[in-house]
Design brief:
Blueprint: E1 9-13, H1 18-29, E2 33-38, H2 41-55, E3 59-63, H3 69-83, E4 87-90, H4 105-133, E5 136-141, H5 154-174, E6 179-186, H6 192-205, H7 209-219, H8 228-238, E7 250-253
Parallel strand pairs: 1-2, 1-4, 2-3, 4-5, 5-6, 6-7
Helix pairs in contact: 1-2, 1-8, 3-4, 4-5, 6-7
């Protein structure tokens, strides 16, 4: 299938590793130019160079700390006036594990800034040039915790739920301008972040990491962790021309982990 995005520009946040990196690679494979953003400038530059060399697309690396409001304001201005993306992948790293109560106020504040307020600010900046073009794709990476809260991830469950509400509201407001807004929900995709959570669980339960991963895989209907490239393929479709009638949706890529309809 031709995704119709060759020559278009995609802004991918959190593109230095994990799901963001996987999506950036898939979009480059489809011929899209890239603006890669994250805190780790060294990793970003390496990714940009590798993708440009491998796929012949233009890839620009921009270091930004989503927990820094001033840095985000500067970055958003560049998104609006300089980068003017056709596609935007809204992605940020997860907050530390915790239960619902006893979380330090600074953890709530930093997490809300990074996962909610900064995401909203950058989405708004990206949407403006999309409106002018009459075409755009916005895709937020969420979590299965939006649908079924994940134990010991209270901060993530709470804030990502707010992002889901924002995206659903925005989708109706910009649909008439040719812009789709969707959220994609990963389950147990085999990334460094999931590895960190599994390691923390192993410590809490007094088990080895191998035991925890084996138990988790056995609990999934598909009996294995997902691959980043599998997740990225679904994301790329939602960012594509053929997906122009899909908006306001939350798409699960979780191997059947969430059992509800």
């Amino acid at each position: 299938m031709d995704l119709g995005i060759k020559g278009k520009t995609a802004l991918v946040l959190g593109a230095s590793q994990g799901l963001g990196e996987a999506i950036a690679r898939k979009l480059a494979e489809e011929g899209a130019d890239l603006v890669l953003a994250a805190r780790n400038e060294e990793a970003l530059q390496a990714n940009a160079q590798n993708l440009s060399r491998e796929f012949g697309t233009k890839a620009t690396a921009v270091s930004v700390d989503l927990s820094d409001p001033a840095a985000v304001a500067t970055f958003a201005a560049r998104v609006r006036n300089e980068f003017q993306p056709d596609m935007h992948v809204a992605n940020a790293g997860g907050p530390p594990p915790s239960v619902s109560t006893g979380v330090a106020p600074e953890v709530w504040q930093k997490s809300a800034q990074m996962l909610l307020f900064s995401i909203i600010q950058v989405i708004e900046a990206a949407a403006e040039p999309m409106k002018a073009k009459g075409w755009g794709r916005i895709l937020a990476i969420g979590s299965s915790g939006v649908i079924q809260p994940i134990p010991n991830l209270a901060v993530s469950n709470t804030i990502r739920g707010a992002v889901a509400g924002f995206c659903k509201t925005l989708s109706a407001e910009v649909a008439g301008s040719g812009i789709t807004v969707n959220m994609i929900l990963p389950g147990k995709i085999d990334t460094a972040r999931v590895g960190q959570l599994d390691t923390a669980r192993a410590g809490r339960e007094g088990k080895t990491l191998e035991q925890v991963r084996s138990e988790i895989a056995a609990s999934l209907p598909i009996k294995r962790y997902g691959k980043p490239e599998e997740f990225a393929a679904v994301a790329a479709f939602l960012l594509s021309e053929p997906a122009g009638y899909v908006t306001g949706q939350m798409t699960r890529v979780d191997g059947g982990m969430i059992r509800s309809i």
